[in-house]
C-alpha cells in the first residue's frame, strides 16, 4: 500500500471519527466544560488561599499549564472508548475486507484525538484570557508550548489505543484515563512541590507532569526553561515510542486473529 493511499485512507477515516465527536454533545461538554469549570473553581474559590510564591504572578497564570494537561487527559479517554466500540461493532473486520491501509484505522483515531484535544485546549486558553491570563510570550514560545502539547497528546493517545484494543468492557476502555487526569494534582500544576510532604514532593518532582508544566509555565512567563524542557521532551517521546510499539503489536495480533 503506497504512502498516498495511506494518507488518503487516513484522511477519510479521520473525517468519519470527527463526525462522531461533533454529534456527541456529552463528549464536547465533558472534555471542554469540566476543565474550564475546574479552572474557574481554583481561580475564584480556592486560588486566594494558595501561595505560589512572589514571582508567579496571578494564579490563573500559574494554573493554566496544568489545566491544559487535564483537558488532554480527559479527552484521550474517548479515544479508547471509540476504538473499543469500533472493535465491538465489527467495523475493523469490515475495514480489513476493503483495499485500505490497515494502519490508517489506528492513525485516524490518533489524529482525531489530536485535533479534538487541540480544539479543547484552545477553548480553555480563550476562557483563561477572559478571566485574567496574560502573557508576553513570543510567537516562538507559543510554538514551543504547542509542540509540547502535541507531543503530550500523541503520547497519551497511543496509551489510549492500547487500552481500547485490550479492554474487555466499555467501562474498562475509558477507566484508564482517570489516573492520568489525577496525575496533575500531584505535581507542580496547582501548588509548588516544595509545599508538599517529602514523599509526595519526591513523587511530584519525578513524574512526567511536573517538568511539562514547569516548561510551559516558563515559556509563558518568558523565563529560561533550564533543563526542564529536556526532561519534558524525554518523557513525552519515551512514552510515545513505547506506547506506539505496544499498540501496533497488539493491533497486528488482533487483526491476524480476525
Automatic annotation (TrEMBL):
<keyword id="KW-0046">Antibiotic resistance</keyword>
<dbReference type="Pfam" id="PF01061">
    <property type="entry name" value="ABC2_membrane"/>
</dbReference>
<keyword id="KW-0812">Transmembrane</keyword>
<feature type="transmembrane region" description="Helical">
    <location>
        <begin position="28"/>
        <end position="50"/>
    </location>
</feature>
<dbReference type="GO" id="GO:0043190">
    <property type="term" value="C:ATP-binding cassette (ABC) transporter complex"/>
</dbReference>
<dbReference type="InterPro" id="IPR013525">
    <property type="entry name" value="ABC2_TM"/>
</dbReference>
<feature type="domain" description="ABC transmembrane type-2">
    <location>
        <begin position="26"/>
        <end position="254"/>
    </location>
</feature>
<protein>
    <recommendedName>
        <fullName>Transport permease protein</fullName>
    </recommendedName>
</protein>
<feature type="transmembrane region" description="Helical">
    <location>
        <begin position="139"/>
        <end position="163"/>
    </location>
</feature>
<feature type="transmembrane region" description="Helical">
    <location>
        <begin position="175"/>
        <end position="193"/>
    </location>
</feature>
<feature type="transmembrane region" description="Helical">
    <location>
        <begin position="229"/>
        <end position="251"/>
    </location>
</feature>
<feature type="transmembrane region" description="Helical">
    <location>
        <begin position="105"/>
        <end position="133"/>
    </location>
</feature>
<feature type="transmembrane region" description="Helical">
    <location>
        <begin position="62"/>
        <end position="84"/>
    </location>
</feature>
<keyword id="KW-0813">Transport</keyword>
<dbReference type="InterPro" id="IPR051784">
    <property type="entry name" value="Nod_factor_ABC_transporter"/>
</dbReference>
<dbReference type="GO" id="GO:0140359">
    <property type="term" value="F:ABC-type transporter activity"/>
</dbReference>
<keyword id="KW-0472">Membrane</keyword>
<comment type="similarity">
    <text>Belongs to the ABC-2 integral membrane protein family.</text>
</comment>
<dbReference type="GO" id="GO:0046677">
    <property type="term" value="P:response to antibiotic"/>
</dbReference>
<keyword id="KW-1133">Transmembrane helix</keyword>
<dbReference type="InterPro" id="IPR047817">
    <property type="entry name" value="ABC2_TM_bact-type"/>
</dbReference>
<keyword id="KW-1003">Cell membrane</keyword>
<dbReference type="InterPro" id="IPR000412">
    <property type="entry name" value="ABC_2_transport"/>
</dbReference>
Amino acid at each position: 500500500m503506497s504512502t498516498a493511499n495511506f494518507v488518503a485512507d487516513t484522511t477519510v477515516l479521520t473525517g468519519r471519527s470527527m463526525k462522531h465527536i461533533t454529534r456527541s454533545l456529552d463528549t464536547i461538554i465533558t472534555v471542554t466544560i469540566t476543565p474550564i469549570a475546574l479552572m474557574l473553581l481554583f481561580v475564584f474559590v480556592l486560588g486566594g488561599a494558595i501561595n505560589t510564591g512572589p514571582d508567579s504572578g496571578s494564579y490563573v497564570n500559574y494554573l493554566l499549564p496544568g489545566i491544559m494537561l487535564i483537558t488532554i487527559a480527559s479527552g484521550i479517554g474517548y479515544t479508547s472508548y471509540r476504538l473499543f466500540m469500533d472493535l465491538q461493532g465489527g467495523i475493523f473486520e469490515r475495514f480489513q475486507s476493503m483495499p485500505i491501509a490497515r494502519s490508517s484505522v489506528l492513525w485516524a483515531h490518533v489524529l482525531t484525538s489530536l485535533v479534538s484535544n487541540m480544539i479543547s485546549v484552545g477553548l480553555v486558553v480563550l476562557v483563561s484570557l477572559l478571566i485574567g491570563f496574560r502573557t508576553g510570550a513570543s510567537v516562538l514560545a507559543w510554538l514551543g508550548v504547542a509542540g509540547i502539547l502535541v507531543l503530550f497528546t500523541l503520547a497519551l493517545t497511543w496509551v489510549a489505543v492500547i487500552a481500547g484494543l485490550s479492554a474487555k468492557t466499555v467501562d474498562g476502555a475509558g477507566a484508564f484515563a482517570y489516573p492520568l487526569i489525577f496525575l496533575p494534582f500531584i505535581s507542580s500544576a496547582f501548588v509548588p512541590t516544595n509545599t508538599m510532604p517529602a514523599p509526595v514532593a519526591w513523587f511530584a518532582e519525578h513524574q512526567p507532569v511536573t517538568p511539562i508544566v514547569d516548561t510551559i509555565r516558563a515559556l509563558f512567563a518568558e523565563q529560561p526553561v533550564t533543563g526542564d524542557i529536556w526532561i519534558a521532551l524525554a518523557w513525552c517521546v519515551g512514552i510515545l515510542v513505547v506506547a506506539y510499539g505496544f499498540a501496533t503489536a497488539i493491533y497486528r495480533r488482533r487483526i491476524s486473529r480476525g
